[in-house]
Specification:
17% of the residues lie in helices and 39% in strands. The chain contains 1 helix and 22 strands. Strands 4-13-12-7 form a 4-stranded mixed β-sheet, with no helix packed on it. Strands 15-22-21-18 form a 4-stranded mixed β-sheet. A 3-stranded antiparallel β-sheet has the order 5-11-10, with no helix packed on it. Strand 8 and strand 9 form a beta hairpin. It starts with 12 loop residues before the first strand and ends with a helix. Its main location: membrane.
């Protein structure tokens, strides 16, 4: 008889020595040692190493890539300790979790089923189930949190001055009487990334008169460096660059056209001249493309005729 419950996980076997003694004088005895092995029953559920897990995955990861391995342990033996893994059913943004994450049932390796986008969602969580092979089976669940890490995959977007289809902003008018440090405009831009990848800096990379204007690299404010002089051109063209702090950095640019005038009526002729110049340049580009296409066609036609004449001469011979 046992004086307490036996636990195979604490002691899987016992060496029991039985002694038989008679009542003679002197008494005689015999010893017998019995090996008692404790059979296993499925009384332990699988246990995970941690109460919860956190996984960090850079965005734009390859689909099907292994991102983590989770493990559970069962102190039972044989089939009672054989563990299989699965992910409990849930949804992420109305899509089943299985369309984002899968797990190998035997190894516990977790795979990404698609490329994650930090700008779409930044984290999600799932429940992993570990179930043993006993009868009846026992199981445990653990929470796994997946955090998507940002990569610098978005260029800055310039909101103001608002660029047109050719990245050229509308005209800005500056009074001829503007003093030095006059605020011309402010470049406003955003970046869909986060952290260092979204830190923006502003540069003036090209100007009709570079010493005439300054730009604050942090705020994007464009100011005059001095007063307007008669020798200065009333039309000024600035090319502005907005760059993020990612590695490698991404950038966007816009062209800002400026006119020095006291009123709109004075500035209007200069604006029209600029627009006509742009239209003439577009027309010239169109004619160049047409001419190039025509030359290519004539060259191809001459080659075909030369080949045809050569074949005809061969046939006559």
């Amino acid at each position: 008889m046992t004086d307490r419950p036996l636990d195979r996980e604490k002691a899987s076997q016992y060496n029991i020595t039985i002694t038989a003694t008679d009542k003679g004088t002197p008494p005689l005895s015999t010893n017998k040692t019995i090996l008692l092995q404790i059979s296993d029953i499925n009384d332990n559920a699988p246990a995970f190493e941690k109460a919860s897990y956190s996984i960090y995955v850079p965005e734009n990861n390859p689909s099907g890539a292994s991102i983590f391995q989770i493990q559970a342990f069962d102190p039972d033996v044989d089939q009672n300790s054989h563990i299989t893994y699965s992910i409990l059913t849930s949804n992420i943004e109305e899509l089943p979790i299985s369309s984002y994450i899968s797990i190998h049932s035997e190894t516990g390796t977790i795979y990404a089923q698609r490329s994650f986008d930090y700008e779409q969602f930044r984290e999600f969580q799932l429940q992993v189930k570990a179930q043993d092979g006993g009868s009846p089976s026992l199981s445990s669940n653990v929470t796994v949190r997946v955090f998507i890490l940002d990569r610098n995959d978005n260029s800055p977007q310039i909101l103001s001055p608002s660029p047109d289809s050719k990245d050229s902003a509308l005209f800005e008018m500056i009074p001829r009487s503007a003093e030095a440090d006059y605020l011309v405009t402010k470049v406003v831009a955003v970046d869909a990334d986060s952290g260092h990848n979204a830190w923006l800096s502003y540069q003036l990379i090209q100007a009709t008169e570079p010493a005439f204007f300054t730009i604050d690299s942090h705020t994007g404010e464009i100011r005059t460096a001095r007063t307007f002089m008669e020798r200065d051109s009333v039309k000024q063209r600035l090319v502005l660059l907005v760059k993020d702090n990612g590695r490698p950095p991404l950038s966007a640019s816009v062209t800002l056209n400026l006119v020095f005038a006291e009123n709109f009526q004075e500035a209007l002729p200069e604006m029209k001249n600029q627009m006509n110049s742009s239209e003439d340049q577009s027309d010239l580009q169109f004619y160049l493309v047409v001419a190039l296409a025509l030359m290519s066609f004539l060259f191809l036609l001459s080659v075909i005729l030369a080949i045809a004449i050569k074949l005809r001469q061969i046939q006559k011979e």
